[in-house]
Amino acid sequence: DQQVKQNSPSLSVQEGRISILNCDYTNSMFDYFLWYKKYPAEGPTFLISISSIKDKNEDGRFTVFLNKSAKHLSLHIVPSQPGDSAVYFCAASVDTGNQFYFGTGTSLTVIP
Amino acid sequence: EPEVTQTPSHQVTQMGQEVILRCVPISNHLYFYWYRQILGQKVEFLVSFYNNEISEKSEIFDDQFSVERPDGSNFTLKIRSTKLEDSAMYFCASSELAEGYSEQYFGPGTRLTVT
Questions:
Q1: Is A43 on the interface with B (CB under 8 A)?
Q2: Is the model's pLDDT at A46 over the cut of 90?
Q3: Nearest CA of chain B to the CA of A10: how many Å?
Q4: What sign does the CA torsion over A74, B98, A41, A77 have?
Q5: B33 touches chain A (CB under 8 A)
Q6: Which among A102, A55, A51, A23 is positioned nearest to B44, based on CA atoms?
Q7: Which residues of B touch A26 (CB under 8 A)?
Q8: pLDDT in tens, A47-83
Q9: Out of A50, B5, B28, B79, which could bridge A57 as a Cys pair, Cβ 3.0 to 4.6 Å?
């Protein structure tokens, strides 16, 4: 039972263009969402988060958008850089604990 | 910058053997977690640990699994009798207890291969 889904296993983008990574969830009780980035042979690294009281959160080149009615969130990276090439996981949590539910990840390749 | 460390980076074991995966969380963090990722699948939550006891565990975390904080720095995951399907990357994470939510910092993982 996959409560958090990332339907695109991979994405390729030209350097300088926008990367858009998508994530859907099924549990309407989720109220906190995060994006993690993972390089090969390393653990996931926290990137950006958003709580359900907001619909947008921006941090430098990274912006996360949350559409609660559609149960959808997206991560925008502008402009994309080759160093952004990694696997991106979205994760969600309910307010009953610290357990996060992860999506399966999207592998982003930024082409120089 | 403080980081979570895990040892070993790769563990190969025979089916039925016991394994212990080790983690050193960030020193001022109070919550500890284990996750696993079977190759090609999603990252799955196993267990969270706070104040020397399990606070949450998933269905995966059955009687074959146990966690311990044997001293002030290490956090271990023990699998008593490994099965082939335990082959996965195991990630440890820690977070600082704070108001609201606290981001989890992940270690680099231990790849467990059960043959």
A1: yes
A2: no
A3: 12
A4: positive
A5: yes
A6: A102
A7: none
A8: 999 999 999 999 999 999 999 999 999 999 999 999 9
A9: A50
**Least confident residue range of A15-24, A33-42, B72-81:** A33-42
Judged by a CB distance cut-off of 8 A, whether residue A99 touches chain B is: yes
**Which residue in B has a C-alpha nearest to residue A41's C-alpha?**
B108
Q: Which of A45, A99, A104 sits opposite B45 (nearest CB)?
A: A99
Nearest chain A CA: its distance from B105 CA (Å): 7
Task: Please report, rounded to a whole number, the percentage of residues in chain A having pLDDT higher than 70.
Answer: 94
- C-alpha A46/C-alpha B89 separation (Å) is 18
Q: Is A106 on the interface with B (CB under 8 A)?
A: no
Among A64, A77, A63, A71, residue whose Cα is nearest residue A108: A77
Q: What digits encode the pLDDT tens for the residues B5-49?
A: 999 989 999 999 999 999 999 998 888 999 998 987 878 889 989
Does residue B109 sit at the A interface (CB-CB below 8 Å)?
yes
Per-residue model confidence (pLDDT) at position B24: 96
Nearest-by-Cβ selection for B108 from A36, A43, A51: A43
Q: CB neighbours (10 Å) of residue B115?
A: 10
B55 has pLDDT over 80: yes
Phi, psi of A3 (to 5 degrees): -85, -20
DSSP string, B31-76: EEEEEEE-TTS-EEEEEEEETTEEEEE-TT--TTEEEE--SSS-EE
